[in-house]
Amino acid sequence: MGLKATRSVPASGPVLERHRGRDADVMGMSVRRIVPLARRRTVGAWCFLDHFGPATVPAGRRGLDIGPHPHCGLATVTWLLSGELVHRDSLGSVQRIRPGQLNWMVAGHGISHAEEGVEVSDDTQMHGVQMWVALPEATRHLPATFEHHPALPSVQVGALRVQVMVGELAGSRSPARCDTPLFGFDVAVPADSHPLPLDPDLESAVVVLSGAVEVEGVVIEPGTLAYLGTRRHEVQLTGHPTARLLVLGGAPLDEPLLLGWNFVVRDAAELRDAYRSWADDDGRFGKVPGARGARIDAPGSAVRRD
Ligand code: MN
What we know:
Layout: E1 14-20, E2 22-26, E3 29-35, E4 46-57, E5 66-71, E6 74-82, E7 85-89, E8 94-97, E9 102-106, E10 111-117, E11 124-134, E12 145-149, E13 154-157, E14 160-166, E15 168-169, E16 172-173, E17 182-189, E18 192-197, E19 203-210, E20 213-215, E21 218-220, E22 224-229, E23 234-239, E24 243-250, E25 258-260, E26 263-265, H1 268-280
The chain binds manganese (II) ion.
């Protein structure tokens, strides 16, 4: 783990960079880690993206339980294409989430949460993404909040059907709280070529969740981050034959970040404080009432005491 904060420098104009994600293991579940990558750490304030599944949960079984663990300095975003989860946090929130709904947990100075599978009566595919948004200096020390948005605006842009998870498109705005200019669109792309308008002041990227898509004529499949740079008024998308993807972006961050375990901070001292607060259970991250899974310890090598 690096202990120096880094800043991802945005491209100064339109580009098409392909960055292959890497396979990672989260509590025994294999995921594709698409952000951060060595050469592209952030896209706007989006600083983490794990794509999980599709994986089958057999009838009568329950999906994975991820026990209580802490966060600070970020907002977590859970977005499902299929399956269901239950969110519990140290504010007392208990919230089931289904596809098309948005769980938006703003950790601020500190929160802990658990995510639990739901027992299924039929074989069920779990498929979705877990994302983090870095909070700016102005809000990262504030108390935590949790938002659940059961219905989000859906916009038809030509032949593209777009759910506005975060930010605004064609006059429709997501109710999710944004502390920096940010957007996240879930886009269903049919065959043939279709333009999606973009804000040229923001940087943007495409992450394919199913199928394959041509982005500006280049085929992109799941597991790759297609970084688009800045100063684009639109991006041309072609489904092969149909695709489901995320278009993400925002104002480039103007401050360096340090990501360590589940924390987004600015320097090693802050990271050490966060690890110590979780190890000592000193109240900063609270407790998750009713959680099914065991409290997750920080990776041993990262627990630093002075
Ligand atoms: Mn989490």
